[in-house]
Amino acid sequence: MTRAEDRILVQEYLAHEAEPIPLSQEEKAELESRIRKALKDQDAVLVAHYYVDPDIQRIAEETGGCVADSLEMARFGNRHPASTVVVAGVKFMGETAKILNPEKRVLMPTLEATCSLDIGCPADEFAEFCDQHPDRTVVVYANTSAAVKARADWVVTSSCAQAIVEHLDARGEKILWAPDQHLGSYIQKTTGTDMLLWQGSCIVHEEFKFQGLEDLKALYPDAAVLVHPESPAQVVEMADVVGSTSQLIQAVQSLPNERFIVATDNGIFYKMQQLAPNKTLIEAPTAGNGATCRSCAHCPWMAMNGLENLLHVIEHGDQEIQVDETLREDALKPLRRMLDFTANMNLKAAGNA
Ligand code: SF4
């Protein structure tokens, strides 16, 4: 699939989705209290991504769940004893939780919340691509369907992709990478690894504009520029820090700058502001003045997670993730490889600390 076809498909998909209606403070308070009760009644834990509604992130934290990047979400759901894991994020995150925890019930506020990277990498076309390059180790980003993961040798997230590719490169392996072309080229450039890239992209990060960022940086020369590597290369080149959501949050806390220009989904501002309340955060520019853009600095699929559908699914259990058992077993192998690799990485880091 070409990038143009990819974008048309995504735009058509989004055109059918209604914009959420804002809730009053009273409505929110009522929903929150019912969500807290329903989580207890159902022996459920809420696991939320940094990009979802701040109210959902707060409830997850206050009820003993977690707010994290996709790697930590997977780890948390795996070790938490609750029999139901409620994933507020997008579908591949719910599928990952189910692949790792087949015995648990995995629910999501809506199964319609997907990802342009997942849509742009259909399993059958991807399998053909892999068949054409049997000499390459297949490394896929977590933002893919269970079927695409099942065809892979390794799954990675943006927080561990570079370390895993370096490890494979050191073993002399050539990589077939999918689906995000920007993250793929960034890793190719930083590691010098032989990588063949699938041409997918994230519709949110792809909107960040180099020219606008340069203008903003001229206005705030003291600001540090933080960029997620799913952004276009020119934007990445302007970054003081390039990293996963967790790494960018860490940068806001540890760098001495008082001001930050942030090129990733603005849902992350909740956690950044919570951990570094004295820092000023500025959204990196997207489509420019007067543009109408439903994916500008906020993922339209992450935005489908709301308090109302969250309560509904905990109470009714009707949006449950199902993964075919054979597919699950095949997708588990590359996922386990990633989790084992990152656990070792953390052990080594702790040993060196
Ligand atoms: S922000 Fe981009 S990569 Fe993340 S879920 Fe949305 S479309 Fe996918």
Automatic annotation (TrEMBL):
Subcellular localization: Cytoplasm
Assign the protein's first listed, main location to one coarse class: cytoplasm
Q: How many and how are cofactors bound here?
A: Binds 1 [4Fe-4S] cluster per subunit.
Class of the enzyme per the UniProt entry, highest EC level = transferase
E.C. designation(s): 2.5.1.72
Which domain of life does this protein belong to? Bacteria
Q: Name one GO biological process term.
A: 'de novo' NAD+ biosynthetic process from L-aspartate
Q: Which cofactor does it need?
A: [4Fe-4S] cluster
Q: Which reaction does it catalyse?
A: iminosuccinate + dihydroxyacetone phosphate = quinolinate + phosphate + 2 H2O + H(+)
Residues reported to bind [4Fe-4S] cluster:
115, 202, 299
Q: Where does iminosuccinate bind?
A: 49, 70, 141-143, 158, 228-230, 245
Recorded GO molecular functions are: 4 iron, 4 sulfur cluster binding; metal ion binding; quinolinate synthetase A activity
Pfam families recorded: NadA
Which GO cellular component terms are attached? Answer: cytosol
Give the metabolic or biological pathway.
Cofactor biosynthesis; NAD(+) biosynthesis; quinolinate from iminoaspartate: step 1/1
Is Transferase one of the keywords UniProt gives this record?
A: yes
Q: Which UniProt keywords apply?
A: 4Fe-4S, Cytoplasm, Iron, Iron-sulfur, Metal-binding, Pyridine nucleotide biosynthesis, Transferase
Its biological function? Answer: Catalyzes the condensation of iminoaspartate with dihydroxyacetone phosphate to form quinolinate.
Which HAMAP family is this protein grouped with? NadA_type1
Family per record: Belongs to the quinolinate synthase family. Type 1 subfamily.
Q: What is this protein called?
A: Quinolinate synthase
| Organism in which the protein naturally occurs | Marinobacter daqiaonensis
